[in-house]
C-alpha cells in the first residue's frame, strides 16, 4: 500500500479522536501528475452537451454533483492502488465487473434515477460513448474524493463540477431566467471533514470546519437554482459517520462512534437551517434524509441486527486496518476477505454501502423523491 493510500490521520486505533471520517476510499488520493494527465484528456470542450441548456423537454433530466456515494465512473482508472473502484471485487454484483462505482453494485445515483423513472445519467468522463438519447437525460459530474471545498485529492470540488455543467450550456440564450434545466442531485458525504481531521487535529478541526463547509455548500446550492436554472435541487444529509467501518472496526464492529455521529448531526442541522433561509417555502430544495435510514439500519444492536445480519462489518474486509478493499500483495494474493453474501452486509468496504444497503435506503426515500418532483 503506497504512502498516499490512506490518510495518516485515520488510524483505526483512535477513532474517538476523529470527529468525522473519510467517506471516499483512500484510493481517491491522486498524485498531481496523474491528475494533470487526466485533466488533459478530460478538459477539452465538453462534447455532446445537448442537455445543459434550456429546453421544454418533458422527460426528466438529472444532473449529479458530489463524491463517491454518487460517482458512476468519473474518477478514472489510475491503477489498483489509487483507484480501487476500477478493480475487482468492486462491481461483482452489478454489472459483474468494476465500473468505477464504489460498491459491489449500484450506488445512490442509480437509485435516485430509478426513483425518477429514468436511466442513470452518463458519467461526464464517459460521455463520448453515450448516445444522444442518454445525453439528453442529464449527466453525472460527481467524483470520488471530492468535497465542497478542496480536499487535497485534486478532485473537482462541487463548484468546479457546476462549472463543468455551465460550460455545456449553449452559448446563446438569456441565462437561467425562465429556463428549466431539470433536477440537480447534490451528494456531500464528508470528504471535507476527513480532510480537515487529517490536516489538523482530528475532532476540533473538523468541528470548526462545519460552518465553512455549509456556508460554501449554500453558495453552490444558490448557484444551482439562480444561475444554473435547476427546477429542483435534492441535497443529501450526512449519514451517521461514526457507524462506518472506518470507526467501528476498532470497536470490533460492536457499536458506533458517538462523537462522529454528533458531528454529522451538527452538519445536518446547519444544512437544514441554510435551506430554510434559501427556500422558506420548500419549493426548490429538498433535504434528502440519508441519516435516518442509515441509522435505522446500521445502529442495530448485535443481538437484533435487523435487515442486515452484518450492519457494521464490511463485506470486503481488509486484513490490515490500513489496507483497502481489493488490495493484493506482490504475488497477487488477496490482502482482504470477501463475504459470501453481500446482501447480508450494509457496508461493502470501509466507507461505502453495498448495493443491497442502497436499495434499502432508497426504499425509505423513494416516496419523498417522487412527491417532491411531481409538483
Ligand atoms: C419553450 O416553450 C415556450 C412556450 O411554449 C416557447 O416560447 C419557447 O420558445 C420554448 N423554448 C424552447 C427552448 O423550446
Ligand atoms: C474549487 O476548485 C476550483 C478549481 O480548482 C478552485 O479555483 C476553487 O477555489 C475551489 N473552491 C473552493 C470553495 O474550494
Ligand atoms: C492537538 O491535540 C492534542 C491533544 O488532543 C493537543 O495537545 C494539541 O495541543 C493539539 N494541537 C493543536 C495544533 O491544536
Ligand atoms: C469480535 O466479535 C466477534 C463476534 O462478532 C467475536 O467472536 C470476537 O471474539 C470479538 N473479538 C474481540 C477481540 O472482542
Ligand atoms: C419546509 O421543510 C422543513 C423541513 O422539512 C419544515 O420544517 C418546514 O415546515 C417546511 N416549510 C413549509 C413552508 O412547508
TrEMBL record:
The keyword Kinase does not apply. Keywords: Hydrolase, Lipid metabolism, Signal. One of its GO terms (molecular function) is hydrolase activity, acting on ester bonds. Gene3D superfamilies: SGNH hydrolase. The keyword Signal applies. One of its GO terms (biological process) is lipid metabolic process. Residues 1-36 form the signal peptide. InterPro entries: GDSL (IPR001087), SGNH_hydro_sf (IPR036514). Belongs to the 'GDSL' lipolytic enzyme family. This is SGNH hydrolase-type esterase domain-containing protein. It comes from Panicum hallii var. hallii.
